[in-house]
User: Fold this.
Amino acid sequence: MLARKMALTQKVPILVAGVVLVFLAQGAWAAQYKVLHRFKTYGEEPSRLIFDTAGDLYGTTSGGGAGTVGTVFRLSPNGQGNWTASVLHSFARDGHDGYYPGAGVTFDSAGELYGTTTQGGAQGGGTVFKLTPHANGKWTETVIYSFGNGNWPQSDLIFDSMGNLYGTTVYGGPDSAGTVFQLVPHGDGTWTENQLFAFDNKNGYNPYAGVVFDTAGNLYGTTEFGGAGHRGVVFQLSPNGGGGWTERVLHSFIKGSLDGFQPIAGLTVDASGNLLGTTYRGGRHGDFGTVFKLTPGGNGSWQETLLHSFDNNRKDGFAPTSGVTFDNAGNLYGTTAKGGANGGFGTVFKLTPSANGRWSETILHSFGNDPGASTPVFGVVFDGSGNLYGPSLGSGQHPLGAIFEITP
Assistant:
């Protein structure tokens, strides 16, 4: 059900890849790769991951579970190098619950989890749900909002300082081009939706990823299509003081060697207010995708820089569908859904900045043809020790999905 899955069309016969790969690269960076958990049901592909303060990992699967239409899961380290998986909630087609979650989950300050489903709910157009933990170890689900038919929310959610939630719908709005929404909580447990902006072809359409805040309270995101070049945009939403929000297109992507296009993933804001992201296609080496940066100028303009253009060769990956993550040293990390040295099943990469403004790429892991551990379409997260964790969809006619760890 994921947009990222829709973009992945190449399927190949199933083989089994090795469990551990060590890659010595620039700076003698050695990466050890390990599969922590393999899902067992067809369609049980996992989403973006998050950690809690105890070191447990949380995410969703777009299928599987008791209802076969998705779960929220937790992976807990058991102290012996292994991880134990538990299902916190199985979604159901019951006319009320949502199903087919297409994004990860987000914690609030009370330890409750929030997420979206692309379908289901009281109105059939997907839901925003909340999972509340109890002392007995069980979790209770509450659907806090149901969208109208055809909205298809599949973005990650974020909170503001007032406890309001923000996200996007892929479709919805007067032109069915997608929306940015806000959910406001009330004391009686109900939530009210405010549609902050509805897209059309001129200002972008199909926002698959969620939005991020800057320190001034502006929201930023991407749309896969639309804009002046009809190849996607980076947009800004600014509160206008009267309760409304004003949209501005910061960059319209174009098809050609000077730009990437078709951004599927969301953005990362660095300490200087620059916006960083990826495009699924385009770049200097053909149609294989990019990592880009948008830098704000003094006159309100934004300047784009391509930090890396992916190449269809044996070493480099291509077709990134996830965003990028910083480490404490300012290096960037991400995944590609295709390419790499082991048959084209994706990579985990690192980009290192240099004094001359250029960025050098290191491939930390190339995935092989594995029904679980291949084709990473979401990004990676760090633990407190600097280890990387991420989900993969798997390959072949019956992909399963897995959670992997890369240890420096």
Notes: The first helix runs from residue 3 to 7. The CA atoms of residues 136 and 256 lie 56 Å apart.
